[in-house]
Amino acid sequence: MSKELIRLSNCSMAFDGEYVLKDINLYFNDKEFLTLLGPSGCGKTTTLRIIGGFQKPTSGDVFFDGVRINDVLPHKRAVNTIFQKYALFPHLNVYENIAFGLKLQRQNGKKLSKAEISGRVSEMLDVVSLKGFEKRDVTSLSGGQQQRVAIARALVNRPKVLLLDEPLGALDMRLRKDMQSELKRIQQATGITFIYVTHDQEEALAMSDTVVVMEGGAIQQIGTPEDIYNEPKNAFVADFIGESNILDGIMHSDGVVELFGRKFQCLDGGFSPMEPVDVVIRPEDIDIVDAAEGTLKGTVASITFRGVLYDIIVDFHGFKWLIQTTDLSPIGTEIGIKIDPDGIHIMKKSEFSGMYGDYSSFSDKYDDIGDAESELELEEAEGGYET
Amino acid sequence: MKPKYFSIPYVGWMAMFVVAPIIIVFVYAFTTPGGEFTLRNFSDMGIFMPVFFRSFRLAFIATLLCIALGYPVAYILAREASRVQLVLFMLIMLPLWMNFLLRTYAWMSILENTGLLNQFLSFLGLPTVRIINTQTAVVIGMVYNFLPFMILPIYSVIVKIDKNLLEAAHDLGANSFLVFRKLIVPLSLPGILSGVTMVFVPAVSAFVITQLLGGGMVFLLGDLIEMQFLGTAHNPQVGSAISILMMLIVIAFVILMNKFGSGEEKAVGL
């Protein structure tokens, strides 16, 4: 296990008396790829800005390598940032943009030599595959190329930590996928700690070593992508990460949970007898069988074709479930379902219970994802950009 | 209706009050009082060179002072909270709502030998100064009257600079001074350039200021031209020739400025 590099200890942040971060405790390990994931206004960008030094926490401390850095200005931190809209300097060309930080660096009170600067810039241009673009005007580049310049400009300073604030938000889907693996590759090649902010759960799961799910200025869950997906801590996490049916259940004993008056086998335990719980069932963990053979019987209410599979909404006594399947059953047919014990995940009741996981008003949930513009506005309204 | 019809009044206005006078001036400049073609009006220009030189020198000094005074104001204005901004704006704009002559008369009574400034100096027991009717007084008058035209364009450019850029520069290791020098100054260059144009051009041709604050002792191009048309010298042909020469110099100057500043415009999305 690598060592701890940054620690936020009891950090709170308020703008005009409104708390956007509530008592955050979080540490970041050296060389890890950590993602702060959450919806607009959950406090993820504020957390990033505190680490970058653009905002001072209202209360609490920030430690870097064990040293308190609350009062250290951004330009004195061994941290570089990639901003939402890249923030490339429009009056400088690609080379000058990337060399900006190097020209300011002093080693033993001396400037870096011209040869060293140009060596490091061209090395960086190689890493982001922009060789030959040195003299190009940054405003003439495409979004993806600007993104690469922004990455090179930050990495060329060899920071210990790179902060990335929704860096792929403005790119189209395909480019985004490419850049995701590109970023992951760069992170592994350089061994720099990446702290990545996004509201796109797919992105978070695909890239991260550790995911921190945030909502309402508080951390909801910290874990590996697999943990977060398979063992969500509460209804918010279960709903935000992937699709999930969240139901009220009663825990009879370890491994036995009651749903709709029927007992199901599960793998979780450690609850008190007859404790009310939230039960998560992922749409892909549900098997469709003949009505006669199923543990539960329901009627197909709607079908949406998603390419690889169908999203079907099934009505079980008024409660609507989302099931993902490759088998098509026409609307109106009665089907049975079976759920394996490892497809049932039990969560303690939380403040989010009852708020999520019902598909009775199922509309196109995918609309929520990738709406980068509204996200930006909200984050700004949150009180960012103080100088 | 096609939008181009809307431009008719404007085109008419321009033709009557901009193009026609220029044509008349051109015609005058190349003719004798008798109406024959001549270049004499230009070849006799040599004797006025000291006036040209003095005018451009004073306009240049006034422009530099306007940058020196206006830039910090514009910078503060662009970065202050909105309430402070509003008050500052009022302070800058308010004098503009007063008559130009009135404002210049006010400076007369401040700078006069027994004026407010000297009264204040003697009140403090300091020696009095003689400013009125000197080039200094004329420059003060120019700076005072044209300063807002330097502040406003610079302000409007600085206020548009993306704050993310400044944060990015901080992030890359620049302290506040370096952020100012390496980002804010180059990015506000277009504002400075248009401010310079807006101050320098009227300053070169200023003439009321020279008469009131210079007391006729500081004779500039504006006075020279006025004298040729309305005054004692009465030679509209020579006056026109001087006007054209001045115009050419100013145009050359503006073109040069824009060349120098091209490439900066896109920096702020102008």
End-to-end span of chain B in angstroms? Answer: 30 Å
Number of helices of chain B: 12
Query: What is the annotated CATH architecture of the largest domain in chain A?
Result: 3-Layer(aba) Sandwich
> What is the global morphology of chain B?
globular
Poorly predicted residue ranges of chain A:
363-387
The termini of chain A sit apart by: 37 Å
Helical content of chain A stands at 10-25%
Number of domains of chain A: 2
In helices, the fraction of residues of chain B equals over 70%
Report the C-alpha radius of gyration of chain A, rounded.
24 Å
* CATH homologous superfamily (4th level) name of the largest domain in chain A: P-loop containing nucleotide triphosphate hydrolases
Mass-distribution shape of chain A: elongated
Computed Rg of chain B: 22 Å
Number of domains of chain B: 1
Explain what the structure shows:
The complex is a heterodimer of chains A (387) and B (270). Chain A is an alpha+beta fold and 387 residues long. Chain A folds into two domains: 227 residues, Rossmann fold; 111 residues, OB fold (Dihydrolipoamide Acetyltransferase, E2P) (Beta Barrel), CATH 2.40.50.140. Helices cover 24% and strands 34% of the residues of chain A. Chain A is built from nine helices and 22 strands. Chain A has a six-stranded mixed beta sheet, sandwiched between helices. Chain A has a five-stranded antiparallel beta sheet with strand order 15-14-13-16-22. In chain A, strand 18 and strand 19 form a beta hairpin. In chain A, helix 2 crosses helix 3, helix 2 packs parallel to helix 4 and helix 3 crosses helix 4. Chain A is elongated and about 80 Å long. By secondary structure, chain B is mainly alpha-helical. Chain B has one domain: MetI-like (MetI-like fold). In chain B, 71% of the residues lie in helices and 0% in strands. Chain B is built from twelve helices and no strands. Chain B is globular and about 70 Å long. In chain B, 35% of the residues are buried. At the A-B interface, strand 6 and helix 2 of A face helix 8 and helix 9 of B.
